Amino acid sequence: MAGKYLINLQDPSAGVFHITINNALVYLKWEDTSFNRNRAAQLLIQDFQLAADFAMINLQFWKDQYGGNWSKIWASYNAGWDWKNGKGYSKDIKSKIQRIKMCRWASI
To answer: Among residues 36, 51, 66, which one ends one of the domains?
Structure first.
């Protein structure tokens, strides 16, 4: 939804890139407490650059796992180790990239 909803209580994740709170706590090196989970969610919502940095860390982790297989990388960004559950997410990203390429805005 391109950042329309900045929190998902099911994951839970937060911010424009929907970083899971568990991952945010690891990246921040914070103890997993209720208070710190709330703080991390608030940071992800308020600090676009921090959320982008964490998204890059996460994407790099999956890239290290799957090499250049971007379909699996995107799927795992969405679904973790069970990348097959993220196939729809991956296909959606691929479709959006194709549409952007058709606009000839940039060489992607």
So the answer is: 66
